[in-house]
Amino acid sequence: MRLRADLHTHTIASGHAFSTVTEVAEAARAGDLDLIAITDHGPSVPGGADLWYFWNLKVVPSILDGVRIVKGCEANLSPDACAENGIDIPDAVLELLDIVAVGFHPLTGFDDKDAGRNTEALLRVVANPLVDMLTHPGNGEFPIDAERVVEAAVQHRVVLEINAHSFASSSSRAAHSAAERHFAELAREAGAVVAIGSDAHYHLHVGRFDDALSVAEQLGYVEGDILNRSAEAVLEFLLSKRPRPRLDFGGEWRTGGDAP
Questions:
Q1: Which residue(s) pair with 253 in the sheet?
Q2: Residues 217-232: pLDDT tens digits?
Q3: Could you tell me which residues come within 8 angstroms of residue 110 by beta carbon, excluding any fewer than 6 positions away?
Q4: What angle do CA 171, 131, 217 make, to 5 degrees?
Q5: Which of 96, 95, 111, 133 is nearest to 44 (CA)?
Q6: In degrees rounded to 5, what are phi and psi of residue 90?
Q7: How far is 163 from 139, CA to CA, in rounded Å?
Q8: Tens digit of pLDDT for each residue in 189-210?
Q9: What is the bridge-based pairing of β-strands 63-64 and 67-76?
Q10: pTM score above 0.85
Q11: CATH 3.20.20.140 holds for 5-242
Q12: DSSP letter at 191?
């Protein structure tokens, strides 16, 4: 199975990642990827990016050295009553982004392992038409009713991620990999839109899908089942859901600083 896009990568703006946008794009090109999504953490993660960062992503090239850069976020579910959309990034900012991913993370208000509360929060987010993807949704640190979430994701055409880092032995989520695998199995049975993401926090990890690919193949997935099989498939899906007003705003550039 050959994947040509990575929809889950982080830069130094996430606070606990270690590479720049340019380094991530260069690594993608070296790995023969055609598209990457920059999905830095929302502001409620300790050290996460400020709202101004997401607003100003328009300055980042849309294509750099032939690699399409889809500019987005990995927002956090928010228990804050002031968060009208249940997310730590407001809709006014989300609608400017090329891709909106959302996931549970420690220290953002959901560490009590309340499956009912977690499920209701996630169902609310999945119903938001600005949300495109759920990251590591089978993470056992944040228990949910997986069947209900998968059903809602199918209904609202929200991508469910098979997260490569969740299956890596070095991952803090490795202890819960069985739950991630079960979620991927449910997603396949339900016909959900699925992507495999690296969750790279260092540029040399971009496009490293091996652990997740192994699980996907064991569960019977084939290349055509995976959204990020090509840049064209990713862009077609995103544009079929809603307009992406700044998709090409950054223009096409070379790393030397000159436009082609």
A1: 64
A2: 999 999 999 999 999 9
A3: 77, 79, 104, 117, 118, 121, 142
A4: 45
A5: 111
A6: -70, 155
A7: 9
A8: 999 999 999 999 999 999 999 9
A9: antiparallel
A10: yes
A11: yes
A12: T
DSSP 48: P
pLDDT per residue rounded down to tens, the chain (260 residues):
999 999 999 999 999 999 999 999 999 999 999 999 999 999 999 999 999 999 999 999 999 999 999 999 999 999 875 578 999 999 999 999 999 999 999 999 999 999 999 999 999 999 999 999 999 999 989 999 999 999 999 999 999 999 998 887 676 666 668 889 999 999 999 999 999 999 999 999 999 999 999 999 999 999 999 999 999 999 999 999 999 999 999 999 998 766 66
Domain boundaries in the chain? 5-242
**How far is 255 from 39, CA to CA, in rounded Å?**
21
Q: How far apart are CA 220 and CA 166, in angstroms?
A: 19
Owner of token pair 């899908």: 209
Residue that is written with structure tokens 């896009």 in the block: 5
Q: CA distances (Å), 135 to each of 32, 245, 248, in order?
A: 23, 23, 25
